[in-house]
Amino acid sequence: MIKSVLITGANAGLGRECARQLAEYQQIKKIYLGCRNLHKAKEAQAELVSETGRNIFEVLLIDVADQQSVKEAVKTLNSPIDALVMNAGGTGGKEFYNKTPEGVTQIFAVNLLGHVLLTNELLKANKLTQAAIYAGSEAARGVKEMGMT
Q: SS3 of 82, please?
């Protein structure tokens, strides 16, 4: 049974809605809101508590485009999670084509590489016990840059 979940990009869009809907299940005891912006994360946390009536949301600072941030976030998790929802990402503007210190584009780092690293780090630390799900929300809306309507 899944009792704890980490959702990346949880302060807005599908990530936030995923957190809200998961909170409807009483067996869920902890939802980590994986976000890169503390202010936006705290706002989402307060709104989710108000909307759901459940104080089960915890902010986990993480920028999946930044490998060091991913590693630090895994270290700060106090206990294992049952499920990971990899939602953070985007198509962004020109800045998404800038290179990271690792030599890959930001768009590749945030949409793929960061989540691969996150999953691997969680597994190495024995902090992911049951499920990992990738949610590609951009495809649901269409991606003009990729010719998707």
A: strand
Rounded Cα distance, 148 and 142, in Å: 5
d(CA 11, CA 57) in angstroms, rounded, equals: 11
The residue whose two tokens read 């691997």 is 120
The full length of the chain comes to 149
* All structural domains of the chain with their residue ranges: 4-142
Return the minimum-mean-pLDDT range out of 6-10, 47-51, 121-125, 135-139: 135-139
Q: With 0-12 CB in 10 A as exposed, 13-18 as middle and 19+ as buried, what is 98?
A: exposed
pLDDT digits (tens, 9 = 90+) for 44-87: 999 999 999 999 999 999 999 999 999 999 999 989 999 999 99
Q: Are 19 and 49 in contact (CB under 8 A)?
A: no
Q: Are 11 and 61 in contact (CB under 8 A)?
A: no
Regarding the domain delimited by 4-142, which CATH topology (the fold level of the hierarchy) does it fall under?
A: Rossmann fold (3.40.50)
Alpha helices in 79-135, H assignment, sequence order: 106-108, 114-124
According to DSSP, residue 128 is labeled E
CA 107 to chain centre: 15
